[in-house]
User: Which sequence fits this backbone?
């Protein structure tokens, strides 16, 4: 009887796990294409705006839009989120002498191109104190496209805590963007930590201009 109950319990847990994954809101290809188009339009609008753009004035005057990889639906994946905020805050290296404090928020576990991968999610201690950014999460990463199609220093992804549902989140590399220091040395940009180096080429998101 105990063995039968154990088998039933295991089967029930597997079904529950599959149900959670099924409820994770991975967009359809059409929804995804629309979301990526909106992301690209918003980002281009920011780069045209003198109040938000990292581009020097002369570059902004000639700006016609960022270079993006073609929309890649396979680079939009469902990731399992593992919460982990037990580590002490640390100084994340930057492209300058600035020393911002970050804390590990958790990890995203996912599969891309058949490879089991992981990215650490961070939270800025400074932004956590600013209205509107208390739930902001930061995912800096590098991959093997850096310097060969994408910016050599790596790229960033943003996330909000509310995007994590039932321990899962949609991770879309089509929304990866360059740090501001890719466009001007006047900016101080966090350098992606070694633990966020992906061992494959990610052809999605913003490309390099050079």
Assistant:
């Amino acid at each position: 009887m105990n063995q039968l109950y154990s088998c039933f319990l295991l089967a029930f847990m597997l079904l529950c796990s599959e149900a959670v994954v099924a409820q994770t809101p991975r967009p359809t290809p059409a929804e995804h294409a629309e979301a990526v188009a909106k992301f690209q339009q918003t980002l281009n609008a920011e780069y045209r705006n003198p109040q938000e753009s990292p581009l020097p004035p002369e570059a902004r005057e000639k700006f016609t839009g960022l270079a993006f990889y073609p929309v890649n639906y396979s680079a939009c994946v469902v990731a399992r989120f593992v919460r982990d905020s037990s580590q002490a805050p640390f100084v994340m290296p930057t492209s300058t002498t600035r020393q911002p404090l970050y804390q590990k928020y958790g990890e995203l576990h996912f599969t891309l191109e058949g490879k089991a991968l992981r990215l650490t999610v961070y939270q800025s201690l400074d932004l956590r104190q600013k209205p509107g950014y208390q739930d902001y999460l930061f995912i800096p990463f590098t991959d093997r496209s850096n310097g060969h199609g994408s910016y050599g220093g790596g790229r960033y992804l943003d996330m909000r805590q509310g995007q994590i549902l039932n321990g899962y989140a949609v991770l879309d590399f089509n929304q990866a963007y360059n740090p501001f220091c890719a466009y001007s040395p006047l900016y101080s940009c966090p350098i992606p930590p070694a633990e966020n180096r992906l061992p494959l080429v990610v052809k999605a998101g913003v490309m390099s201009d050079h």
